[in-house]
Amino acid sequence: MKLNNIELQFDDFATEMTKLKNEKHFDYLVTIIGEDFGEEGLGCIYILENTESHERCSVRTIAKQIGEEYVIPTTINLWNAANLLEREVFDFLGIKFLGHPDMRRLFMRNDFKGYPLRKDFDASPEANMFPTTDEPESDFTTEWNLDKQGNLVATQHRMFDEDDFIVNLGPNHPSMHGVLRLQTVLDGETVKHIYPHLGYIHRGMEKMCESMTYPQTLAFTDRLNYLCAMMHRHALVGVIEEGMGIELSDRIQYIRTIMDELQRIDNHLLFLGTCAQDLSALTAFLYCMRDREHVLNVMEETTGGRLIQNYYRIGGLQDDIDPNFVQNVKTLCKYLRPMVQEYLDVFGDNVITHQRLEGIGPMNLEDCINYAVTGPAGRAAGWHNDVRKNHPYAMYGKVDFEEVTMTGADSMARYMVHIKEIYQSLNIIEQLIDNIPEGEFYIKQKPIIKVPEGQWFFSVEGGAGEFGVYLDSRGDKSPYRLKMRPMGLTLTGAFDKMLKGQKLADLVATGAAIDFVIPDIDR
């Protein structure tokens, strides 16, 4: 969508955002985009959605400057999803959110010098912004507010009580699906709080995009979530194509939709396998990996890749589909349908599975929306959040499929949503595979691609939730600001709510059922 921002001044911001939430029912905070707007100063764009009408709007506000500091009122009192989203903006731009109870860095080290997404950030080796000692840690968080005289005042909040027992899950790989550290506060074996520590694999992709041409930025998407490479690149080429006004052929749209769904099956098969493995069921993992190989074989014959899929490009596809692609996809669909029941027989309907997943990591509908728990995890609580239905792209508005929702609102329901979504992906593919029209697989572009001035946001339904890309173009061959809305950041931010009062072992089971991939979060 092309952004037509609602402009809010600092003094009116809190009141007007409250009206948008409570009176106009914009109850889903999609993302917060921090940006250095140049001469206008630092500020944020908030993308909101009304979950009843699925209408979206964008709000822009410029931070108030107090001395050398920049401040914006927090929105965490309206949307809990703002917790980590505002910390991300603070981390990269230095904007302090007034009233936020935990203004610590999120991805960068606590002693990192500077704010990387500011345009005047000095990234030279001489700047010495990379500390060489161990990272200092504190038991306190900081809340910033303005006193009656308009001065910025800091308040310290203690994170741990004296009798709290702290266990770090991660940043080692087992059960954390990557280098994620969850600082877990326990009372015996009962979880009291979870503080996520991110950024162990942060690579500064959004910053690097500012100095790259648009075709060069595409390679990053495959390295965010290697199980959703097609969908992630679809979002990036989609926002660029929308900005440029490129009209794609039906052949391109058909093939992209089929490839997206093959990638979704790939993602869900690995999810089912690793979910079982996290609960010590190795056989189910082997079954899922066996069948995932068949999916990758079909994709590889066209794309040339198995993990990294360099297939979508601005204006279409890298190459046409393989001559055997149609027949092999049909054979794959016929093979996979009975196999899904096999996963349930081996693991999904096992008595141990029910005991480990039922009632574990509960998150009701209202909380899922408030914490922006999208994808299968949100649909397990009955939230109709599928981007393919609410904001159709490619061929999704023309195919018949069901949006899988459940009411269990726990880890077992999340597991079952993934099972049922494999059937729906097969339904979508079977509707399209025999009807791929003739036409161009690539709409030729100029050697140097430039996007007209403007701001756009394009999102897709990834394997674990909504993945979106925001683009601010100033008419150059490189983006002025490119921001990715990861699937897993808000999922990780909901762990504290999901797991309070649960057992330590339930944290591992909930993490298995949430389906997050760390490079997607860290970028």
**Broad CATH class of the largest domain:** Mainly Alpha
How much of the sequence is in beta strands? 15-25%
Q: What's the total helix number?
A: 17
Regions with little confidence, pLDDT below 50 for 5+ residues: none
Mean pLDDT comes to 91
Principal-axis shape equals globular
Number of strands: 17
* Cα-to-Cα separation, first versus last residue: 23 Å
**CATH architecture label of the largest domain:** Orthogonal Bundle
Sheet with most strands: strand arrangement: 1-4-3-2
Instruction: Summarize the biggest pleated sheet.
Output: 4 strands, mixed
Annotated CATH homologous superfamily of the largest domain = Cytochrome-c3 Hydrogenase, chain B
Could you say what the CATH topology of the largest domain is called?
Cytochrome-c3 Hydrogenase, chain B
Helix content: 25-40%
Radius of gyration from the alpha-carbon trace, in angstroms: 23 Å
Description:
There is one protein chain. With 523 residues, this protein is an alpha+beta fold. It has two domains: 138 residues, NADH:ubiquinone oxidoreductase Nqo5 subunit (Beta Polymerase, domain 2, 2-Layer Sandwich); 318 residues, Cytochrome-c3 Hydrogenase, chain B. Helix content is 38%, strand content 19%. The chain contains 17 helices and 17 strands. The strands form six sheets. A four-stranded mixed sheet has the order 1-4-3-2. Strands 5-6-7 form a three-stranded mixed sheet. The longest helix has 29 residues. The radius of gyration is 23 Å and the shape is globular. The two termini are 23 Å apart. It comes from Segatella maculosa OT 289. This is NADH-quinone oxidoreductase subunit D domain-containing protein. It is found in: Cell inner membrane. Keywords: Cell membrane, Membrane, Multifunctional enzyme, NAD. One of its GO terms (molecular function) is quinone binding.
